[in-house]
Amino acid sequence: MRLLLNFFALSIVVGLHACTTNKNHVHIKSMEQLQEYFSYSPDKDVIISGHRGGMLEGYPENCIPSFEKTLELLPSFFEIDPRLTKDSILVLMHDATLDRTSTGTGKVSDYTYAELQQFYLKDRQGNVTEYKIPTLDEVLEWGKDKTVFNFDNKKIPWQLYVDNLKGKWSKYHNIMLSVRSLEECLYYYERVDNVMFCCEISNMEMYEAYKNSGIPWNRIMAYVKYTMDPAQQEVYDLLHSHGVMCMIAIAPTADKVKPFEARIEAYENEIAGNPDIIETDYPADFVGLNLKR
C-alpha cells in the first residue's frame, strides 16, 4: 500500500512539474490552429516575439537554449535566421559571417556544417558560451510542440523552402515565412498550403496590393514597421476587420533605449499604442509588463 501511495504521489509531482514546465508552450497541431493563433481578436493579450530567438546574458541569439530560457519566462514565438552552409545544410545565423556571434571567422557559406561545429556561440555581450550553431531541422524538431518559428530569409532560394515544406517539414504546422515582397509571398502561396506569411503592410498602398493579390487574409500576419503610427490607423482597422494581426518590430528603436529604466518606459509606450504583436531582442524584459487588453 505504501509503495502504491508513493507511486501516486510521484505521479502527482511529475504531473505538476510537467504543467509548470509547459505553461508557456504553444501547441500547434494543424494549419487551422496556426491560423487561429495569428487571428486578431481585441480580447487577445499582446504577443511578444523573440527577434533572432530572443537573448539574455549567457544565451546567444538563434540558439535552442535561448528559446528554452525565454519560454520559461513567458509565452513567445521566435523570428529566426536560416542560412546555408557550404554543404547546403540550413543552420541558424543572422549575419553572413561568423565573427560577431561565434568564435569563428569568415562566411558561414565557406564552412561545411561539420566544420562549423568547432565553434561556440557568443552572447550579445560577447561572452563565449558552451552552445553550438544549430541546424534548422534540429530547431524545428525541438519546437514542434512548444512554439512557432518565423523564418527571416537570408538568401535562401525560395524553391528550397517550398521543397522542404512539401517534404520533410510537412509534419510541422508551426512555420511562418517572412517575405520581402508580394512577389515572394505569391511564389510560396501558389506552391504550398501549409504555411503562413509575415508581410509588410504598413500603408494603404501595400494594403490594396495584398487585398488584390488573391492571397487569403487568414494566411497573413502584417508587419507594420517600428511603431503603431496614428496616421496609419485606417490600415490597422482594415487589417483587423479581416482578422489580421499587426506586428511592430522594435529592435532598431525601443530596444536601443538606455538606461534600462528608460527602455522599459519605451516598451510601455509601445504597448499603449495597441499593437497585437511586439517583436523584440529582449522578450524576457516584458515579464511583469501589462500585456492585457
Q: What is the count of helical runs?
A: 10
Give the tally of β-strands: 10
- What is the averaged pLDDT score? 93
The total domain count is 1
Question: Would you tell me the structural class of the helices and strands?
Answer: alpha/beta
Q: Which CATH class applies here? A: Alpha Beta
Write the CATH fold name.
Answer: TIM Barrel
SSE order, one letter for each helix or strand: HHEHEEEHHEHEHEHEHEHE
Distance between the termini: 50 Å
Shape: globular
Q: What's the gist of this structure?
A:
By secondary structure, this protein is an alpha/beta fold. Helix content is 33%, strand content 13%. The protein has a single domain, classed as Phosphatidylinositol (PI) phosphodiesterase (TIM Barrel).
Overview of the structural elements:
By secondary structure, the chain is an alpha/beta fold. The chain has a single domain, classed as TIM Barrel (Alpha-Beta Barrel), CATH 3.20.20.190. Helix content is 33%, strand content 13%. The protein has ten helices and ten strands. An eight-stranded parallel barrel has the order 1-2-5-6-7-8-9-10. A two-stranded antiparallel ribbon has the order 3-4. Helix 8 links the parallel strand 7 and strand 8. The longest helix has 20 residues. The chain is globular. The chain starts with a helix and ends in a 13-residue tail after the last strand.
Which short descriptors sum up this protein?
TIM Barrel, disordered N terminus, two-stranded antiparallel ribbon, 33% helix, 10 helices, 13% strand, eight-stranded parallel β-barrel, 293 residues, alpha/beta
